[in-house]
Amino acid sequence: MTNLLIVDDEKEVGNFLSHLFTSKGYYVKVANSGKEFSSIDFTRNHFHAAMIDLKLPDTDGLSLLQHLKRQQPGCKAVIMTGYSTIKTAIDAMKLGASDYIEKPFDDIDLLETQIDQLLISTITSTQQHINDLASEVGFIVGQNEGMNQLIQTAYKVARKNVNVLIEGETGTGKEVLSRFIHQASQRSHESFIGVNCGAISESLLESELFGHEKGAFTGATQQRKGLFEIASKGTLFLDEIAEASHAIQVKLLRVLETREFMRVGSESILRTNTRLVAASNENLHEAVQQKKFREDLFYRLNVVHLKIPPLRNRKEDIPLLIYHFLQRHANIGVTFSDDAMEVLQNYDWPGNVRELSNFVTRVITLSDSNDATITADHLPLFNHAAVMSATIEPTKQTAAKKQESHFEIYLQRWVNDILVLFEQENEIDLEKVLAQVKELESQVGKAFILRTLKDTLGNRKETAKRLQITMRKLRYLLNEKKEGGSKA
């Protein structure tokens, strides 16, 4: 027999649910307070599922949920809540609740279906469904505990018609996670449309989101539907939401509050049922405190908050990610040796998963053979110690050879840093980039001098001659003489 626990301070609700599920053949235990819940002997009473009200007169539902999950981890819990406490219900799901139900129960058939499906489904089948959906959209979860908690929460809230805010550094996979949420939702058969709020000017973004009428502005030669209209029954993904202007933020707030909007140049009100998923690589709470982002819009977006950890905090997943990226290239047999994989796991990946993906693509593109094996010897940029051990025994290296290795590491690291800067979508400090170029010029000059000094056995005059520079320039590049210093 299926055992069901109901915790609700309203006796009428408890009696109704008890009658409803008893008639379906369930054994039902009802507790009308936290005190009655505490009196239950969980060593003798095993429950398959529990329905817990969030607000009780002598305690709160979250505390009871945590106690229940400690006593019976396998018990599937459903939180009963009013709309005003949906955010707390989401927090409950992060603590282990399987679902939440809004009160009052307007649709009894839906209530029965939710509980029946919860009891019929197994952990194995649910997890397999999550894995299948994640694989389908290309979201690699891996073994990291934080990522697994993230995907479980995302899966639970996906079926609810609530807004989601995803935060994470550039390149962590915010759009891919939003696609997972769409695929796991009841809207999966409808449109998923994404737009980068930081890549479009304010006027164009307004037209993109809300549409425009013919003649609304110069170049508006015909009527155009906006994304809120096109994705009315689907999911709209707003990337880099922090980059939206205050005027756009006001219009977004109105849509979220009323579900109504107007095309640019129109006075007709249109309605939308779009499910909104927003993303930002900035901390929106801090942006609110700095008056860069509207507080009321933030709370409308932040019904469910998901934060993707950076790759440096989930390095155990790097081998799986690399394997996934390699599989995207047909007929490629490129592999990574164990020492190479160790080197890559010791690197911090400031560009996150996107940088790792670009790195794998570059490796495949530059490989001499489709069946190449990448070793630590090919990766001086990532780990100096690995290069030293992979090229030659340290005890046999000369000082000059070490200097060459240092330069090789510096050069490839410089190239990688510049590529990361070039690929990122945020504002770029060009002066800082030009300073890095100047530093590169200095290091390149010094490297050529040191190599030539080795070849000439330290003969500076011969070195200067081979490099076609003066002795003054030689000393200058070696930082032995500052510009405007004493004579040579």
Give the arrangement of secondary structure elements.
Blueprint: E1 3-7, H1 11-22, E2 27-31, H2 34-38, E3 49-53, H3 61-71, E4 76-81, H4 86-94, E5 99-102, H5 108-120, H6 123-137, H7 145-158, E6 164-167, H8 174-184, E7 192-196, H9 202-210, E8 211-212, E9 224-225, H10 227-230, E10 235-239, H11 246-258, E11 260-261, E12 270-271, E13 275-280, H12 284-289, H13 295-301, E14 304-307, H14 318-327, E15 335-336, H15 338-345, H16 352-366, E16 373-374, H17 384-391, H18 399-423, H19 430-455, H20 460-467, H21 471-477
Helix pairs in contact: 6-8, 7-8, 11-13, 14-16, 18-19, 19-20
Protein name: Sigma-54-dependent transcriptional regulator
Organism: Bacillus songklensis
Domain Sigma-54 factor interaction: 140-365
